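Hello,

Our lab assistant flagged a job as stuck in the queue for most of the afternoon. It eventually completed. Since we weren't sure the result was trustworthy after the delay, we are filing this so someone can double-check. Below is the sequence as submitted and the structure that was eventually returned. Let us know if re-running is recommended.
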Amino acid sequence: MRSPMKPSLALLALAATCAVLATGGDASADAAADPNAQHREAASAMKRAKGSALDVKVPEVKLVREDGKTVTLSEELADGRPVVLNFIFTSCTSICPVMSQIFTQLQSKLGDERDKVHMVSISIDPEQDTPARLTEYAKRFHAGPQWRFYTGTAEASLTAQRAFNSFRGDKMDHTPVTFLRAGSGSRWVRVDGFASSDELLGELHELLAVR
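-- returned structure --
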């Protein structure tokens, strides 16, 4: 078991800012009238990032990339590169923007090495997240060519989520979690909570050191 990671104060502040913006700046907004209230409550409860080893059998499920190409997830992740993966949806106003901003920071810190890492974001709202919508989302977070976005059928998305034990029954219940793997055949590391880009980079370097 890996030791808990310290949360970044800037990151926690960013999460709080996203929550305030999502409620229009009104901290006393009626939760019953706010479809994202439950989602934000889950985000605020995840104040520490914690990593643990995980065995995952990546399913041979068909997904559609943001460029419109249909791919098999197991084959897509087996290109020899380390993988950093999360689950998001584009209409999310709390957890997902923070996680995506962390990925933006991670790709920046990878610098010239970023193309050697496969960054993956899979939609948990595939009925709304078309390839075109994912493309716009990717632009919003300045995603480089190494960071790909995937959608597909609802069944395909559920299969992927269940394989990584991240399905929580409803998109509003999903929690911040990131998965990392050094390469094909390697074990995954599951990082629950808001890990900073520095923490993810450290995990990645550690995985590659023992590869």
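-- support follow-up --
The delay was a queue issue, not a problem with the job. The result is valid. The chain has seven helices and eight strands. The helical segments are 9-22, 37-45, 73-76, 95-110, 131-140, 154-163, 197-209.
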